[in-house]
TrEMBL record:
<dbReference type="InterPro" id="IPR027417">
    <property type="entry name" value="P-loop_NTPase"/>
</dbReference>
<dbReference type="InterPro" id="IPR005225">
    <property type="entry name" value="Small_GTP-bd"/>
</dbReference>
<dbReference type="InterPro" id="IPR001806">
    <property type="entry name" value="Small_GTPase"/>
</dbReference>
<dbReference type="GO" id="GO:0005525">
    <property type="term" value="F:GTP binding"/>
</dbReference>
<dbReference type="Pfam" id="PF00071">
    <property type="entry name" value="Ras"/>
</dbReference>
<dbReference type="GO" id="GO:0003924">
    <property type="term" value="F:GTPase activity"/>
</dbReference>
<protein>
    <submittedName>
        <fullName>Ras-related Rab-2A</fullName>
    </submittedName>
</protein>
<comment type="similarity">
    <text>Belongs to the small GTPase superfamily. Rab family.</text>
</comment>
<keyword id="KW-0547">Nucleotide-binding</keyword>
<dbReference type="InterPro" id="IPR050209">
    <property type="entry name" value="Rab_GTPases_membrane_traffic"/>
</dbReference>
<feature type="compositionally biased region" description="Gly residues">
    <location>
        <begin position="155"/>
        <end position="167"/>
    </location>
</feature>
<feature type="region of interest" description="Disordered">
    <location>
        <begin position="148"/>
        <end position="167"/>
    </location>
</feature>
<keyword id="KW-0342">GTP-binding</keyword>
Amino acid sequence: MASRGRQRISVCDIVVTAGQESFRSITRSYYRGAAGALLVYDITRRDTFNHLTTWLEDARQHSNSNMVIMLIGNKSDLESRREVKKEEGEAFAREHGLIFMETSAKTASNVEEAFINTAKEIYEKIQEGVFDINNEANGIKIGPQHAATNSTMGGSQGGQQAGGGCC
């Protein structure tokens, strides 16, 4: 979440796809109205990496063309069982214009950072005018605070503020 003067901007719609074919039909509807997506594969299962192209095509076909997409190689705590090299993930991300990071949901390594980095990229697109903050179809919602003319990014002071929130 970013502060914009006295406005609070919540990036509520970040889609997380886990690369499982059984979820494919329902995740398509989640892409609509999303400002960002985390595309996750399992570094210990080559098949999840091999399906990335299909998942990425789905995301791009069913979303705003400006949606921020982060590619995440999960289970970095299982280095001894790795089937997908970090360099492969980096190369895929570079080739497709994605942000890349490896995480471990088990140890929480880089999990929060993945969401924060995605939100920062979305915020930069807001600052550049790519996303219209007045159009909630972009997956961005302005909190109930009074409108301000300044658009500086400040940290949220003390976490959630009364009267605001996400989603």
